[in-house]
Each structure stands twice: as C-alpha cells, then as structure tokens.
Amino acid sequence: MRAERTNSARTGKFNLITWIQLAFAVAAVVLIGFAVDLAWGDIPRLSDGKPDLSGYYDTATITPLQRGGDSEEFLTEEQADANARRTAFGLAAGSANQDPDREAPPVGGDGSGGAAGNVGGYDSFWVDPGESNFEIDGKYPTSIIIDPPNGRIPPMKEEARERLRSAFRLGGDYGRRNNGTAWWYPGPGPYDNPEVRPYPDRCLSGFGSTAGPPMLSTLYNNHKRIVQTPGSVMILTEMVHDARIVRIDGEHAPNDVRRWFGDSIGWWEDDTLVVETTNFTDRPNFGRGSTRDLRVVERFSRLDEDTLLYNFTVEDPNVWERPFTGQYTWRQTDEPVYEYACHEGNYSMFGILDGARRLEREAMEKAAADSGD
Question: Among 62, 108, 205, 306, whose Cα sits 20 to 30 Å from the Cα of 328?
Fold first, then answer.
C-alpha cells in the first residue's frame, strides 16, 4: 500500500512537470510565430520566407514616363482627381463615333495625332491606358522617372543623336507621318519589306517597352503575370505574349549570346528581388537609341498584399550622359492575362506593303508624266 501511494505521488509529480513543460513549449511556439509575423510584415510569403510576388498585375497608369517642363514633382489629390475625370471623358468621347457606315478619312489622314496621320485605327473601346495617376505614400508623382530630380531622361550624347539622325535619313525620314504620297520614292524606304518594319508591326514584341526591360505602361494590354519559384521568376507580358525568365543566383550568358529582352539574373536583397539584365542585341526592345551595352537593374518590392513597387535603373554609356531611375506601382488583380493572338487575321502587314507599292506606282507614273516619257 505504501509503495502504491509512492508510485502515485511520483506519477502525479511527473504529470504536473509534463503539463508545465508542454505549456511553456506552446507559449514559445506562439511567441516565435508572433515574432516571425512582426519580422515578415503583412505581405504574402513562400515557405522559404521570401516575399511571394506571384500573381496577376495591372500596370496601367496615366502618369507619364517624363515630367513636363513646368510641372511640380507631385500632384495634389484634387489635381489627380481632375486627371482621372479628364481621362474618363476622353475615352468616352473617343468611343462616341463607332458608326460602321461612316465615311473614310481624307487622303493622308486628317492631320490629328493618331497613328500615321490618323488615317483610321482603334477607337477607345480597344484601349486601356489607365484610369488614374499612381500613388505612393499618399503622393501622386508627376513622372515615373525619379532620378534625375527633374523627372526627365538625361540628355543624349551627341554621337547617339547622330546615329538616330542617320537612321531616320536612311531612305527618308522614318518618323515622318503618312501624307498619302510615296515621299521616299525612289527609295530605299521604310516600307520596302517586312524586315525593315519595327518589331511590334511584325508581332515580335510589344510597343512602348511593355515587356522591357524596363517594363512600362502603354496604350493597352498592360497586364503582367509573375510566376515565382525558388530558382527562377517568370514575368509574362500580355502584349504580344512576351515572357522573361529570371534565373535566381545565376550567372549571365556568355557575351556572344544576345537577346531582344536581354539576359536576366536575379538575387534577393532582404525583401526586394533585384534583377540585372545585360546581353541585349544591337536593337534592344527598349529602343530610344539604346545599344547592345544597355544595362537595366530592376527592383521588385511588395508594399502590401495588393501592391508591388516596380523600380528600375537604366544605363547605356553609348547613349545617355548618365543613368536614370524610375518607379511606379503595379496593382494586383484577379483579371488574368489574355492570349494576344497578334497574327490571327492580321492583314495589316499586307495592307501596309500593298499601299506602299500603290503609292510608288503613282509616284513613278507622275515622274514619267513630268519628264514627258
């Protein structure tokens, strides 16, 4: 009997100690979890603790890349609201005349700001440039560029300017608007064959550096999709189905490997994904006179559960006098990236080339008539 009471006492003591230890263990787990929450912040993360950037994003914004000459650095809330109203009004007005039986535009276009002299193109139903200026910390910047402080791309070097002038002089002014005549005749000209047309005309990449890098907001199709794994990050652009693959902690491809979107490697600096892109072709997708020595460094940071801050720095020693940096926000959305079937039913290239041949025949006939032949 005495032995039984002793064993019972020992058992009770053991159970008490066990419960106390268990209670401390549970409390420790709770405290550790609380500490981790404080350290990680209120953003989604993967199992390895890295911020989860995966998802769909709407990158459209009416904030311009560069600041106007006399603009302040930031808009007031009232000014931002007024911009949003003007944008909505302009889009509504642009969709007003959709009569399929309306007259054709005048020869050479009506002279307004549409493509190629506004000879007819998209109405506002097809465009989605954004509804408002983007906001960071309660402020509305007047440009995406934040450095230089004037919010503008730095001046180009004179040799870069001359390269652009030479390119425009090749076969006539390539930037010249259509005026209904073969102003490049007898050539060479900007409509000689498909290969001389820009990448977007040929459905090879999107216009306006929508896939970049740097990736900018354009007239429409501004959605992106990010798929993230521990070893790589894929960024899919809605416009012309461009996809970039970022290798985490990788090394750049050899110098003789060149791509329109460059070669991208990435690494984590705290909660920011840093992506460096080099190895561009002689005609990088970014354009603006950039060369194969273009280098772009991008930074992706979650501001909160619904917002990504996209920051980029561009440098090309052959073009600009100094690097420049910009940033804007990407808003997470439930709307997916849709297929961009650029060549499906695409008769525009045939129309462009056929129209050029017709204008050249007219120019040839006029030249023959003027010479009396």
Answer: 205
Q: pLDDT of 122-155, one tens digit each?
A: 677 778 899 999 999 999 999 999 999 999 999 9
| CA separation for the pair 240, 343 (Å, rounded) | 10
Decide: 277 and 266 in contact? Cβ < 8 Å. no
Beta strand extents in the chain (DSSP E only):
55-58, 74-75, 140-141, 145-147, 223-228, 232-237, 243-248, 263-269, 272-278, 295-304, 307-315, 324-333
174-196: pLDDT as tens digits: 556 667 788 888 888 888 988 88
Closest residue by Cα to residue 153 from 365, 323, 339: 323
Residues 281 and 268: their CA atoms lie apart, in Å, by: 27
Dihedral angle of Cα 33, 38, 41, 44, to the nearest 10 degrees: 0
Q: Residue 310: beta bridge partners?
A: 300, 328
User: CA Rg, the chain, in Å?
Assistant: 29
Question: Could you tell me the CA-to-CA distances from 42 to 52, 192, 371 in Å, in that order?
Answer: 12, 56, 78
Site of tokens 């309306």: 102
- pLDDT tens, residue by residue, 298-319: 999 999 999 999 999 999 999 9
263: closest CA among 248, 249, 252?
252
Give the separation between CA 180 and CA 106, rounded to whole angstroms. 9
The rounded distance, in Å, linking the Cα atoms of 20 and 16 is 6
Token pair for 63: 């904030």
Q: What is the full DSSP assignment across 229-244? A: -SSEEEEEESGGG-EE
User: How much is the mean pLDDT over the chain?
Assistant: 84
DSSP string, 247-258: EET--PPPTT--
For residue 136, the model assigns a pLDDT of 95
Q: Is-contact 145 325, C-beta < 8 A?
A: yes
Rounded CA-CA distance 285/262 in Å is 9
Q: What is the pTM of this model?
A: 0.81
> Which one-letter amino acid corresponds to residue 9?
A
- Residue ranges covered by each domain of the chain: 2-40, 56-94+106-333
